[in-house]
Amino acid sequence: MKKILVMGACGQIGSELVVELRKRYGRDNVIASDIRTEVPQGIEDGPYEILNILDSDKIAEVIKQNEIDTVYNLVAVLSAVGEANPKLSWDINIGGLVNLLELARELKFALFTPSSIGAFGPETPPDNTPQDTIQRPTTIYGVTKVSGELLCDYYFNRFGVDTRGVRYPGIISNVTLPGGGTTDYAVDIFYKAIENGKFTCNIPAGTFMDMMYMPDAIKAAIDIMEADPTKLKHRNCFNVASMSFDPEILAAEIKKHIPNFEIDYDIDEVRAKIANSWPNKMDDSAAREEWGWTPEYDLSSMTKDMLEVLSKKLQK
Ligand code: AKB
Asked: To which CATH superfamily is domain 4-169+212-239 assigned?
């Protein structure tokens, strides 16, 4: 039986991952942790620890006490916030990861750390971005993501630590809002479409990025940690994809359900520049071949589900 610790459990991915992990492995076998003292609905019904990723001693104590064998590391300063505070981004994203890698080496647990489309840069081939290609990101977030991929590879090759990870697209979800990313518009648009019938987008029309619906993001995280390790050649940086669109295509899909919906633009130059340096659409064939990755949602099924779930939630 797995004993799991989720770090960054109150964030966009963590708050939904904890619920799914508890369904699969049992409530008491999944400890949620975050720096927050107030626990969001959905994860308050199971074990919770206040943990700072920079406090190795406290993390070690919780891991030893609970005989943790798997850690999901979802703590990250995202791309746009990172540009406003590069030192914080490095300290949290890399300082925190090094702490966990050292603990994993000593205490022998498996470690999931997500990378991102942010690990690519303007010199990367933007269409069907290959699994192995040029990675020269121009954001501090991207620098931490490439460094993280390499560090996880290093700890696996040098010390045998069971590190695994995927390169996430922008994640679209309806439980916890994302914070400080470049792809956040693709979540915000749904709230504004339902509340106001109108959305002002901070990313220019014509900017394509990979996106993924949360149930697929959760599936990717769990499936890769369950995968047969002998089949994994890329371990820490699998491209995973399910849909790619620009704001106009997403708006047109929403209009099929809300015909009067309107989009206009007020561009955030920092986010626009970041988005422009990222791929349009990744090739995820390595993940499909090495551990059977298959997403369940496309643009049309994601949009339908988002609007249904959010309409109910926002009515309350
Ligand atoms: C961001 O926009 O910073 C994140 C990401 C794509 O990693 N959502």
From this structure: NAD(P)-binding Rossmann-like Domain (3.40.50.720)
